[in-house]
Amino acid sequence: MVTGVMNIEEGASLPAKNTFQVFMCSIIAAVGGLMFGYDIGISGGVTSMDTFLIKFFHHVYEKKHRVHENNYCKFDDQLLQLFISSLYLAGIFASLAASYLSRRFGRKPIIMSASAFFLCGAILNFFAQELGMLIGGRILLGCGIGFGNQTVPLFISEIAPARIRGGLNLMFQFLITIGILAASYVNFLTSTVKDGWRYSLGGAAVPALILLIGSFFIHETPASLIERGKDEEGKRVLRKIRGLEDIELEFNEIKRATEISNKVKSPFKELFTKSENRPPLVCGTLLQFFQQFTGINVVMFYAPVLFQTMGSGNNASLISTVVTNGVNAVATIIAVVMVDRLGRKFFLVEGATQMTATQISIGALLLKHLHLIGPITSRSVPLIVLILICIYVSGFAWSWGPLGWLVPSEIYPLEVRNAGYFCAVAMNMVCTFVIGQFFLSALCRFRSALFFFFAVMNVIMGLFVIFFLPETKGVPIEDMAEQRWKKHWHWRKYFKQN
Q1: Helix, strand, coil: what percent of the chain each, to 5?
Q2: Rounded distance, CA 120 to CA 485, Å?
Q3: 418 near 154, Cβ under 8 Å?
Q4: pLDDT category of residue 489 using cuts at 50, 70 and 90
Q5: pTM of structure
Q6: Per residue in 284-315, pLDDT tens?
Q7: For residue 105, how many other CB atoms are within 10 A of its CB?
Q8: Dist. CA 285–CA 293, nearest whole Å
Q9: From 3.10.20.30, 1.20.1250.20, 3.20.20.140, 3.90.1310.10, which CATH number describes the 23-490 domain?
């Protein structure tokens, strides 16, 4: 045991083969990202459809088509924004529940529950006849998102070998981008169909069914089994997913971590009061805060609205959104392939730099060319903005998009892992709610200056990564404190000196 610990501290990965079981379980669980992405992509397109606005938000429909309406204020409506943001408000409470339930019952049942909630929400939205049914469906979808986002990245991080943990975990983000792309294409196809918004919203049932069926075939994570006293079953699963008979070294590491974990009766109290937990708590939570204030959901939620604001027709705006989301999906593949080679910090800093430049450029173009009344007269400006948005989205897609989920899932010790990751997910949901609920109002009031605000945020978060985030590439998840936090110039002061 002593030798094993010594090897880990020197940076050696625990022995493991790249097994089919690990890949299968990771891909199936990552379908939770497909659900999340589909919802992100579908809602913005639906809110730009005239048939949807006529049925639920007729006053917004009338304002949208007024010739002399302020370009930046056409979609400014609190109830319309509530349609977007109510999901994330529900997701906050659902992720809190999931943080407790996944520790008590395991990761697998929570993933199954996520798909069931999401399926029910999709069905309710498909049959919605009034705004109350619509919002009710969104709340159910939010419960599914909260359960899935809380559990899936942790599940993958716990089941994956350290040397490929990054790439496997980024499958979650990759499927988010696939979901967004699929949703934008569905919106384009249904935009000319009578009540096409029903098919767009009801289509969320497809990824929910895939995850629900697939979740019957995944294994519970060894860490969760051992934490709940099921040592023999934990060993059996560990042998299967590692492809080895001799798994004693990893089993002992997990056992040591679970013994510490089981002594903790109140994970949240432990998280907030124990100084050693301060570094991952601050970094994990701030990464999710920064992820949302990159400005990405301005594009993901409201891209069709943004393109229509610049004077593009409905079909042109939806086509532009399909192009943008296609870039998003392709760029994420780069992160999946390269993150375990180049590391987390490289992509985070590069992405922040790229997004800063494009946000400034977009803001400058809108400031110069998009006046309060009337469309942009230059035919080239919308095309230039589309290109800039694609560059911006690619920068997010290989950096803050996937790594905002990956890094928090791999930095917490087991005893506070659910509680710590909840704080990260809750921060994501709160910020997404704020963006979803108030962006259109902020766009109305601050206009192009809003993009300069996001540019400043990108500068701040790039500096934060450079100075405060340690590299987590290739480090066994149960040994992050020894190898990284205790050796960091700032965070080491929070650990007791032996």
Answers
A1: 80, 0, 20
A2: 42
A3: yes
A4: very high
A5: 0.77
A6: 999 999 998 888 876 665 555 666 655 555 55
A7: 14
A8: 13
A9: 1.20.1250.20
